[in-house]
Amino acid sequence: MSMADLLAPETMLAASTARTGLSDFGDPGFREGFDRLLSDIRALDLPEAFAQATAFRIGQFLDARALAVDGLRRHGEVLATPVRRPLIIAGLVRSGTTALHQLLSLDPQFQGPEHWLTVAPKPRPPRDRWQDDPHYRAVADSIAAFVASAPEMLDDHMMSADGIEESLFILATGFASNMWPSMWPVPRYDLWYRDRDDRDSYRWLADVLRLIGKGDDRRWLLKNPTDLFSLGEVLDVFPDAMIVQTHRDPVEAMPSICNLILAAQRVFSGDRADPVAIGGREAEMWAVALDRAERVRAGSANRFFDIEFRDFTRDQLGTVKRLYDHFGLTLDASTEAAMQAWLDAHPRRAAVAGPRYRPEDFGLTADGLRERFADYRARRGYA
C-alpha cells in the first residue's frame, strides 16, 4: 500500500474498525476536519516510517472516538448527567498549567479524565482492575514508546497512563482541535480550525466526560491551554465553570512553547517540521487566543482566578490555597500534605544561565514579540 493510500480517510476508518470491531463513529460532522487533516498530511509526502507513525497516532484517536460512541450508546443514561461547576485551568502554554493541574488532581473532591481513559473512553473501572485491562496496558506501552522517541515530552507534560490528562485529548477525537497543527504542519487545516465555532467540540467533550465519570458525582477538574482560544464556546457549554487563567510574559514563554511543538512535530514529520513556520504560527495563535479570552472575560459574569507564573513558582502551595479561597472550596489537611509531598518530590528545575531557547531559533525576535503581545503585556504589567 502506498503512503498516500495508507493515510486516505476510508483506509483509516476501515483500519480502525478492524482493530475495534466498531464501525459507528457518531455524528458524521467530524469528517470535515478528519478529511481536511489527512489531505494536508498526505501533501507532506512523509517518508514511510513517519507515515506509519502518523497512521498509528491518528488511528488511536479514531479508535477512541468509536469506543466513546459505543460507550455512549450502551450507557445513554449518562447524557442526562449535569456537569456542574467544573474547575478549568487555561493559560498560555509554559505558564505553570501542568504543575497546577497535577497538584489539584491530588484532591479527592475532584475527578479528571485519566490519560488511558481519553484513549479508550468507558465508565471508569475500579482502580485495582486497571492493570488487567488490555486498553490500559496498551496505552502504557504506547506512552513508553513515545517518550523513548521524545524524552523531553515527559519533562514538559508528565505523561503517564494513569495520570490526569488534558481535555485536549478528548477534544482531538472530534478532529477539530489544536492538537493536530501541533503535531504536523497542516496550514490549510489550521486555517479552517481557527475560523470555526467550537461549541460542537465542547458538547462532545461534555458527553465523553459523562461517560468516563458514570456514577461519580465529584466535580470535574479540567485543563487545556487552548480553551483560551475558544473561551466563549467553553462557557456556553459549561456556563457555571470556574476558570483559572495562568499568565506569563509571552516574550519569555514563546521560545519554550515553540521548542515543545518542534519536538512533537519532529516525531511525526521529521525534517518537514520547520522551526520558523512553527514560530510564526504559535505567536499568532496565542496572541489571538489571549485577545479572545480577554473579550470573553470582559462580558462574562463568571468568576475568574488569575495566577502569575512568577507568583506560582515562588509559592505554589500558597497559590493553591488562594485559589480554593477564591472559589469557596475546602482544602483539607490530608490533601494539603499530599500536595506538599508532591512538591517535595518534584522540585522545580533550577534555571540555567541565560534562556534555553531564543526567539531567533524560531524566526522571532524579542522586540517583535513585545509588539505582537503589547496589549496583553500592558494589562499584565509586563511592559
TrEMBL record:
Pfam families linked to this entry: Sulfotransfer_3 (PF13469)
Membrane-spanning residues: none
PANTHER family: OMEGA-HYDROXY-BETA-DIHYDROMENAQUINONE-9 SULFOTRANSFERASE STF3, PAPS-DEPENDENT SULFOTRANSFERASE STF3
Protein's UniProt name: Sulfotransferase
Species of origin: Rhizorhabdus wittichii (strain DSM 6014 / CCUG 31198 / JCM 15750 / NBRC 105917 / EY 4224 / RW1)
